[in-house]
Write a structure and sequence with these properties.
- The protein is about 30% helix and about 40% strand.
- With about 190 residues, it is of the alpha+beta class.
- It has one domain: Cyclic phosphodiesterase (Cyclic Phosphodiesterase, Chain: A, Alpha-Beta Complex), CATH 3.90.1140.10.
- A five-stranded antiparallel beta sheet has the order 2-6-5-4-7. A four-stranded antiparallel beta sheet has the order 3-1-8-9, with helices on one face.
Length: about 190
Amino acid sequence: MDNLRTFIGIDIKPGEELLSVFYKLKNVLRDDSIKWVDTATLHLTLLFLGETENNQVNQISAELQKVLQSVPQFSIRIKGLGTFGRPDPKVIWAGFESNDSLLALKHKVDETLLPFGFEDVNKVYSPHLTLGRVKFLKSKQQLQNSLQVYKDKAFQDVLVDKVIFYQSTLTTKGALYRPIKIFPLK
């Protein structure tokens, strides 16, 4: 059986304000080559595992279950827009306000999966929701102007009441995400 492409994440249901700004951005940048995400699949990645052996999936699930069942629910705030990539933006994202509970959860997930050979290659955790992947921009200034307007805007609070072990399947229409296991928080 083939390996699975997996990650650990938090499902995010976008509220009206975030959706409104998302659609405004899509409209302002309609002449640019940007692969916009399906807002129904928005998620906050805690740890991207990548290629995961099938025989590890149940072990990973069992270990995460043990660790996550004692983690209390908490709220996070989606705040601000920005980009990754210099000098040319590659990803347009919505960010999160700094949150100790989120960082503690991230740390628990990282520590739990380290014995399986998974570690965060980025080292510095930048929690974000990917809104679009930039292929080509005709006007960087238009994007920068839009980002400037919303760089400190608080969009919504989100209750984190579960963590999801996802399988990600790449298709020509984008990635498809399927929950392997859902871990409710306390």
